[in-house]
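Quick question: who can interpret this fold?

. . .
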Amino acid sequence: MKKQRNKNLDLIGEANDAEPSVSVIELLENALRCLQEGRIEVTVADQVRWKPGRSVQEHRHDDLFHLDLFDGTGSVILENRSLPLRNVTLIMIPPGWSHAFTSSPNAVMRNRTVKFRLLGSPFPPNVPYMYLPQPDESLLRRVADGLAWNFEEWQMRQEGWEGVCGGILGNLTALMLRAGIRLHGPQPHGVLEEACYIMAMQCSQSLSIRDVAARCGVRPDALSRLFRAHLGVSPREYLQSIRLKQARSLLAGGFTVTEVSEQTGFSSVHYFSRVFSRIFGLPPSRCRPGHRTVE
C-alpha cells in the first residue's frame, strides 16, 4: 500500500512563511525519544565518488535510515519530489521514504553515506526526511567529522567498533532531528547550543558543569535555567544521559565495564555501575555480548 503523505512533511529545511507545524515538531521530538531508548546497528558506511550523469534508481528501505553528506551538484528525488543537490547538502531519510539520486552530467559529485537501523525501540511512523541544502557551519562540521570517524571505524573493524559507530550515529541523528525542530519551532539560545556541543564532544573527559558554563561565558545557574527552560532537564542530567547512551553502545560493542566507565567520564566504576543500573534497570555487565538483556 502506498504511504499517504502529510502535506506538512514535504520538506524540512526549505524556507517558507507558513506557521510552524506542531505536528512536525511532535514527530521529531518523539523520534528523539525513541533514539535515546534504542540501539543503532550500522549496515553500510561508504565514501562514494559519483561519475558525471550517474543515477541510482528510486527505491525505499523498510527498516533502514539513510544519512548522506553530498559535495557537488546533482539531484535527489524524495517521494516523487525532485530537489537540487548544490555544493554541500545534508540529507537524512528515515525508513519508508522512497528516494533516488543523480549526479550532474557535467561534474563529479562526492558523498559520505551511511545506512543503519534502530533496534530495541520502534521508530514512530511518518517522521519527515531532512533536506538541508545550506546547513549551518556548526552542524556541517559535526556531521562531516562524525561520518569520517564512522567510516574509519567501519573500515578498520577493531574490537568494539560496533559500539563506537552506534554512538557516533546516535549523536549525528540527534543533531539532525534537533536541526529540524529548530527550523519548525522557537530558536534556542546560542549558549545552550554551544554547551550541548561541548558536552557531546567531551563527554569522555572529566567535565564539570562549572567548566562548561565558563567556556560559554555564563554563570552555572544561568546555564541551568537555559537547560531547564529549553530541554526540561538540568545540565548535569543532560551530560549524564549522553554518557549513559555512549556507555550502552560501548558495552554492546564488547568493552568491559571498567573500560566503559573510563571512556565515558565517570569518576569510578562503582559509581558508573550504580547510575547505569538505576537508569536502565540492570547492571552494565548484562549489556555486554553473551548476556541476555532483560526487557
Remarks:
- Residues 1-22 have pLDDT under 50 and may be disordered.
